[in-house]
Each structure stands twice: as structure tokens, then as C-alpha cells.
Amino acid sequence: MGFFDFNQLFVTWVSFFFSIFNTMIRPIIILFFLAFVQLYFGQNKERIAELEQKLKTDQPQDKIAEITFELSQLYELSKEPSDINKAIEYAQTSISISNNINYTTKKIKAIHQLGKLYRNKGNYDQALIHHNQGLNIAKEYANQKAIATAYINIGKVYAASKQEELAKENFLNAIKIGDKIKNPLIKSIANSSLGDFNKQLNKDNISTQYYIEALDNILQTDNIYMQGIAYKNVGLMQNQTNQKEASATSFKKALQKLEIVNDKKELSEINFFLGEFYQDIKDYDNAIIYMKNSLGFAELSGHQEFIKKGYENLANVYERNNDFKNAYNYQKYYCAIKDTKLISELEAQLEIERKNGEIALINQQRRIELEAERTRTYILLFIAIIVLIFSITLYYNLRQKNKINKDLAFATKAANKSKQEKEEFFTFTSHEIRTPLNAVVGMTQLLGKTNLNEIQTKYLKTIKSSANNILFLVNDVLDLAKLEKGAIKLESVNTSIREIVSELVNSLSFKTHDKAVVLSYDIDDKVPNYIKADPLRINQILLNLTDNALKFTKVGTVQVKVTLVEDNDESATLNFTVKDTGIGISDEKIEKIFESYQQASIDTTRHYGGTGLGLAITKQLVELMDSKIEIESKVNHGTTFSFTIQFPKSEASVEELVIDNNVEPLSNISILAVDDTDLNRSIFYDLVYSKENNVNVTLAEDGKRALELCKQEKFDVIMMDLQMPILNGFETTDQIRKDVNSPNQNTPIIAMTAHVIEGVSKRCDEVGMNDYIAKPINISILFKKIKQYIETSNPQQKEVTLPPQKPANNEVELKTQLVDLTSLSELVGGNSTKIIKYIDLFLKNIPNDFALLKEQFEAQNWSECAKTAHKIKGNASYMGIQQAKELLIEIEKLKKEVGDVDKNIDIVDELGVLLNQSIEHLNLIKQNLII
Questions:
Q1: pLDDT at 522
Q2: Per-residue model confidence as pLDDT tens digits over 650-662
Q3: Sequence-separated (6 or more) residues with CB below 8 Å from residue 174
Q4: How far apart are CA 697 and CA 450, in angstroms?
Q5: How far is residue 229's CA from residue 218's CA, in Å, rounded to a whole number?
Q6: Higher pLDDT among residues 710 and 304, named by residue
Q7: Rounded to the nearest 5 degrees, what angle is found at the Cα of 24, between the Cα atoms of 18 and 29?
Q8: Could you tell me how far CA 524 lies from the centroid of its own chain?
Q9: Phi-psi region for residue 202, left (φ > 0), alpha (ψ -120 to 50) or beta?
Q10: How far apart are the first and last CA of the chain?
Q11: Which of 214, 318, 485, 764 has the largest count of CB atoms under 10 Å?
Q12: Using H for helix, E for strand and C for coil, what is the string for 435-497?
């Protein structure tokens, strides 16, 4: 030999090791596992001896019943007739003792054990006698699970005696009980038994269906072992019906389940079945893996049948794979177990293989020796290059990944912060703008209940329309969030374009009083009187565009024009144009003008105001109507917005605007109003309660009190505030809905909230609220919502007759340097008695509320502090204490930015002084009203 070859030496040593292993070590292992099998079965004998020894000592009767029952099961495992007889004797002893001490559950089990033993012996009559006895006892105690188990055992006896109809009937009885008591385990056992029985009758397809049903049942439980057995049964039948791929999938799922419980005997069988599958499709590598796994588990569990099958099948697989050496070895081990000598053919094939191998080795040895060194060098060099390239690539990728992760984390944090700030802005702004609308809405509602002439009605319509336009501006903030989430759904109701445009122009005409601007509209005579559309969104689009045009036009004209583009029997296509002669928009700004929070220039907001949301919302609403908004503009010459929409036609008339005094009143109902603020409760009570119409209003100051009232009395509707102490509106509603004994479990619940943004409405729906209404509450909308969810007991409703009100003392001044009760007076129609009532409520609550606020502030409990400030702010708004309201807004913000605590304590102290002075002023006004 010219040089020392380490590769050749390594191969030689490995071959030598496996030769020693196969000739010496492997037979020893076989003998070891055969001994293990004997030991495994010997363990049962040891347990039997242990239990029988216990019977010779003093034991309680219930313990003796359990020991004899276990001995019966252990003797059952033996195939010897004498052992089966002992199993029967021990089962009878367990029955006798259990009967004496009324140990019913053990008695039933022992009776069924005895029936099972007789069934295994082929004594079906005795088996039926005992199983029926167990059934009768179970029925006597109404134990549905035990009844179902008895039916299964009886069915197995009839199945063993090939009485098909009776077997099927009993198994189906068990399934019915399983359905009734919702026990999927019982159903699975019964369906599996039906599968076993049909398999005996060679009804493979029917058997497969029952096994699949059994699998579906057991998957509803957490019984991992039974799930594995169910998958195994399905796999066996799929294999039997030539569904090979499906059977392999089922066996693999069974393997996953049984690996969890580590049942080595079952793992041995399933690995063997998978080995057979791969053997059939000639994937011998996988076949060998699964066969070896099967053999290993069989040897560990002492599963003699599959130990023999394992060696035999491995020999066959190696032979088919032309690996005669391993085939010979495994056949030799199999024959050692079987005590046979059927290996002569394999020995001959192995000898031929050995000779051919020797010739091939001689012919290739010289070439291998010459090329080995060169090949090794190339391989080492190639590996070194690959490692170097891989290292460089890995280093670069890690650096890039770290950089990307940092950038992504920063961007995600910024995006989340921006989203959170925007949502807070939406909530805070909408709530703050809605608060001053209380006075406007309240005034129109109360004024609408008086007798009005034609001019006053017209003015009231204008006030109401203007108030609605303000609400539209507030809703811009809310609509943007909804549009971004796709939460806005368009309505399709009878709509008059003429009425929308004319009311829009009338409500905005006041904006031209201080300008040399003419606001007009032009509607094509061919435009249909009525179409199907969403009037709210059409008005919102035109309001945004027209208001925008008026804002940016100092001199000239603003015109809203509607033209008929196309007309047929079913639809009409209309073109809307809003044209102005204002400042115009430059070409480079036109593309960005529809983006959220964008204005034409950085000076626009300062000079003209606005949030920059109107056009963004308008564009998205137009696109929601399957159209596109177009814009033409020239700097200092004006701007034209236009869009075209196709609407379905409608011949129905549109109801005229109804002032609140014509709203159909409520009658014969009871309402529970839940709100933690005395002032809110009192105002709601005064606006809704009606003795003449039998409208009763019960008040609750918090969620806990509401739950108590809900258990005592049935209400027709519940009005629920969302922000309350103890239990908020969501928690209270959730408990009402879950209380099956409550008479109000299904009572309609309507939320009252000033935070009507996406998320709040979703939470209302999740806890079972029927609807929500925004604050300030519109009486017309409130009445309509209540009528929507309840059926009044008196269809002939009476007209509302308000009780006579005490006229206000016109000489009493309702406004001082600190308080202003003008809006409150307008809300209650100048009723002095109600003004005094609301002052008393404020004076009663404000000292306690402020003391709580100060305590929360000193404890730096910012979230609770903000809630209390919010509550005081609502009461201060009704009293017109504007300075206190501004300070409370600052305190509310502390939940987001704490800032300097020492500095902020000055705000709280200032608020305390201001509230004390306001109390003095209110007491003075109250005294004047009384006089």
C-alpha cells in the first residue's frame, strides 16, 4: 500500500462492528426481550398474588369489593380455562359484597364484568341475564350513563351471537342516551361497537362510516387515548377499502395521539401498519423506519404477535430492497422465534451478493486509492468556501434584520401612538362640542311644544336645521374613523333632492350676511321629485362642499346645481356641482386636497379655520356611492366640485319636517333610567314622565341599584348610561342579560352616551344592548327608538298635555359674573320650580364630588380623577359655570400627561375657590326665585 488511507480504515472498522453486532450482540438482545416478555406477563401474577394476600387480612367491605373486582379483571387476561373460572368467582364475590353494603356503582360494574366473562366463554344467555340486571339497576337509580353502558354491553352480546337487528337496536339506544345527556364518549363507544360489528359482517363501507362517527364524537372530548384508537380504527377500514392514502393519514394522526399517552402496544401496531403502507408503495426507506419503530415498541411492551411480525416483515422489506444481508439477519431472528430453518434460499442469494461485491471491490480499489486524496482536498476546499460565504451572508443578513426590526419597531410605535392620539382626539372633541349643543337642542324641543305661527315654525325649522348642521360637523370627526374601518352602511329611503338642497341653502344663508357673496341653487326641472337614496349622506356631502365654498369666497357667487344626466323607468342619473368664485387651489395642491387633515396651504387653517376633514370624508362618501368626485380650480378665479350618481326612482312622498311638538307621544309604558348624575336623571325624568299618558319613570343612581330594581319590577325599556361608578353600563347590562331569573332579561336596553364612536357601539352590541342614543338626547329620536323596541299596550295613544308651569320671574337676574342659568331656563321653558330643583341638586352633590376629586388627585389616581372631573364638568355646564368647566377640562387631561404635580395642585385649589364662590351666587339666585 502506497499510503495510509483513513477512509478505508474507517469503513473497515464500521463493517467489523456491525458484523460483531449482528452475529453476537443482536441474538443476546432478542433473548433479553423474550425474557422481558415473560417478565411482563409475570407482573400480572405478582399483582394477583399481592391482592389475594390482602384478602387474607382484615379489610373494609368496600375495599374487598374493589379488590375482588380487580382480581376478576386480572384473571380475565389469562387464556387458561381455570383462570377464567376464577375471574367469574371473583366477579360474583364483588357483586355479593357490593349488594350487602349498597355499593351500587361497584355492583353495576361487577355485574357487567361477569356478563363480559360469560360472553367471552360463549355463554350468551348468562351474559344477557347479567347485563340486563345491570341495566335494571341503572334504570332504578336513573343513572343515564350507566343505562347507556348497559345497552352497549347487551349490544356486544347480540353482536357476538350474530343477532344483527338486536345488536344494532341496543347500540342505537346507547347513542340516543348519549345525545340526550350530551356525552360524546358514550356515543363514540357505541358507534365504535357498531363499526366492530359491521366489520365482522364484512360490511366494510358501513363499518367505516360508524368508525368515522365514533371519531367525530370522541374529538369532542379530551380523551387522547380514545382519540388515537378511533383514528386507528378509521385507518384500518380505509386500508381495507383500498383508501391507502387516507388510511396513512389516519394512522399518522393516531400515532400523534398515542405518542402523548405513550401506549407502546398500540404504537407498535400503528407503526407496523404505516410500514406496510410504505412497503406497498415501494418506499422502502420509510417502510424500514416504521417497521423498526414497530419492532422496538413491541419488544418494550412484550407484544409477542408484533415482535414476530416485525422481524418477518423487516426481512421481506430488506429482500425487496435487494439488501440480502439484512434480510438474512432478520429472517434468522424470526426463525429463532418461530423455531424454523427456512432460510436456505436467502443464504444462496447472500453468497452470490458477497462474491459480486468482492469482484467489484477489487476492480475499483486502485481507482479509489488514486482519486481519494484529490477528492478529499476538493471537498475540504469546497466546504471552506461554502462556510465562508455562508458566514458572510449570515452576518450581513443579521445586520440587515436588526436594522429592519429596529425601524419596524419604531414605525409601529409611532403608528400606534398616532392612532391612539387620533382616537382620543375624536372622542374628546366630539364630546366637548356636543356639550354646548344641550342648550340649543333643548330649546328647540321645548319651543316646539308650544303653539307656533307660520313664521315661527319657519324660524324653528332653520334653527333645527342649523343645529343638525353643527352635529354634522361633529360627526365629521366620527365618520372619518368609521369610513376608514368600512363601518358606514348607506340607507336607501325616499328622498327629495329639492328639499335637501333648498334647506341646505337656507341654513347656510346667514354666512353671506357679512360678505358680498350670493348663495343660490339651480335644480333641473327634469330632476325626479323623489329618489331612493341616503338623505343624511347626500346632505353631508353637499354641506361640506357648500360650506367649504362659502369659507373661501369673499366676493362673488356660490352655486349648488343639480342636473339630470340620464333618465329611465327605474333610475335617474344626477350630476351635482358646487361652484364658487373664491381663492381657488393651485395645481400642486389639488392632489393633496382630499387627504385627511390637509388644507390648501399652511395659512389656510389660520385664516379660514377648519379641521381639514370635510373634503376627505366627502371623497370617501362619494366613492361609497360608486362615483368619483372631480375638481377644477384656478387660483383667484374659483373652484368647481362635481360628481355624478345613479339613483333608483321612487314615487313615494317624503314626509315634511315635523317639529317635536307633533311627535307621537309615549303611553302606557314604564322606563328605568340609570345615570349616576342627579341632574341628568332629573332632566330625563321631567322630559319623559307623563302622568296623563301613564308613562312611569323609575330612576337608579348606579348599576348596582339598577340590578336590584330589575329583580323587583318588569320594565318596558331601560335607558342605560355607560360611565358610572360601582358597575358601569356595560357590566350592568351583561349581568341583566345573564340573569335567567330576572323579569328584565330580555327587556330592550338603550345606551346613553356622548362617545358614539366605533368601538363603543360594538361593545354595546357585545353585551346585549339593543341600541344607543347620543347625548344631547333628542326627544324625537328617543321616542322613535323606544317605540321601535316595545309594543305599547294602548294603541289609542293620548295627546301629551304638559302640566302647567310656574312662569319664570322676569325680574330675577339668572346671570352673574360666575354662573349663567339662561340656557337652563330655556331648556325648562322658564319654569322657576325646576330651576330651583336643579340648583338644589347641584348644591347637594358638588361638595362631595369635589372632595372625592381632590382625594383622587392627591393619590395620583389619574384615571379615576379624570372620571370625577368629567362628572363635575357636566353639572357645571348646566349651571353655566364656564370658568370651572375650563379648569375641569385641564384636570381631565391629567390622565394622559401628568406633568408637574405641584403645578397642577394650583388648578385644583383654584377650582375649589371657584366652586365655593359659584355656590354663593347660586344660593342668591335661588333666594330671588323663591321670593
A1: 93
A2: 875 444 333 344 5
A3: 148, 149, 151, 152, 155, 186, 187, 189, 190
A4: 23
A5: 10
A6: 710
A7: 95
A8: 51
A9: left
A10: 132
A11: 214
A12: HHHHHHHHHHHHHHCCCCCHHHHHHHHHHHHHHHHHHHHHHHHHHHHHHHHCCCCCCCEEECH
Q: Rounded to whole angstroms, what are the CA distances from 640 to 563, 578, 579, 589, 596?
A: 15, 6, 4, 15, 20
Gyration radius of the chain's alpha carbons: 44
Instruction: Give me 302's grid cell.
Output: 412484550
Question: How far is residue 695's CA from residue 669's CA, in Å, rounded to a whole number?
Answer: 5
Q: Where residue 581 falls among pLDDT bands split at 50, 70, 90?
A: very high
pLDDT value of residue 627: 92
- Rounded CA gap, 463 and 465, in Å? 5
Q: Is 222 helix (H, G, I), strand (E, B) or coil?
A: coil
Is the pLDDT confidence value at 348 over 70?
no
Q: Convert 572-601 to b/e letters by CB count within 10 Å (16 or more is b).
A: bebbbbbbbbbbbbeeebeeebbebeebbe
From the DSSP assignment, how many helices (H) and strands (E) are in the chain? 33, 12
Q: Is residue 29 over pLDDT 50?
A: no
The dihedral region occupied by 541, where left means phi > 0, alpha psi between -120 and 50, and beta the remainder, is alpha
- Cell digits of residue 727: 358597575
How far apart CA 265 and CA 272 sit, in angstroms, is: 11
**Preceding omega of 535 cis (within 30 degrees of 0):** no
Alpha carbon distance 464, 458 (integer Å):
10
d(CA 929, CA 835): 9
What is the per-residue pLDDT for 345? Answer: 47
CA 857 – CA 895 distance, rounded (Å): 10
Q: Choose the weakest-confidence range: 302-311, 481-490, 784-793, 825-834.
A: 481-490
Arithmetic mean of pLDDT, 141-145 = 87
DSSP letters for 563-595: EEEEE-SSEEEEEEEEEE-SS---HHHHTTTTS
| CB-CB neighbours of 140 under 10 Å | 9
pLDDT at 419 over 60: yes
Q: List phi, psi (to 5°) of 635.
A: -55, 130
Query: Which candidate, 797, 791, 782, 818, places its Cα nearest to that of 922?
Result: 818
Whether 580 contacts 639, CB under 8 Å: yes
- β-partners of residue 720 are 674, 751
For the segment 866-879, the average pLDDT, to the nearest whole number, is 82
Computed over every residue of the chain, the mean pLDDT equals 78
The answer to whether residue 719 scores a pLDDT higher than 90 is yes
The DSSP string of 613-654 is -HHHHHHHHHHHTT---EEEEETTTEEEEEEEEEEEB-----
Q: For 734-791, what is each residue's pLDDT tens digit? A: 999 998 888 999 899 999 876 545 456 778 888 889 888 876 666 777 888 888 887 5
**Nearest 10 degrees: CA dihedral of 180, 185, 190, 196?**
160
Cell of 628: 368619483
Question: At residue 832, does pLDDT exceed 90?
Answer: no
Q: What distance in Å separates the CA atoms of residue 869 and residue 852, rounded to the nearest whole number?
A: 10
Residue among 681, 682, 677, 684 at smallest CA distance from 786: 684
Helix 164-180 to helix 184-200 angle, to the nearest 10 degrees? 160
Residues 229-247 have pLDDT tens digits of: 989 899 898 888 888 888 8
C-alpha grid cell, residue 572: 335617474
Entry field: residues in the chain: 931
Grid cell digits, residue 518: 350670493
What is the reported pLDDT for 709? 93
State how far the alpha carbon of 764 is from the alpha carbons of 315, 565, 750, 755, in Å.
70, 43, 9, 12
**Biggest CA pair distance of the chain:** 132
* Predicted local confidence at residue 750, as pLDDT: 92
Please state, in angstroms and rounded to a whole number, the distance separating the CA atoms of residues 357 and 337.
Answer: 31
Q: Which residue's C-alpha cell is 350592568?
A: 732
Helix (H, G, I), strand (E, B), or coil: what is residue 18? helix
Residue 520, all three cell numbers:
343660490
Count CB-CB contacts under 10 A for residue 816.
16
- Grid-cell match 384478602, residue found: 55
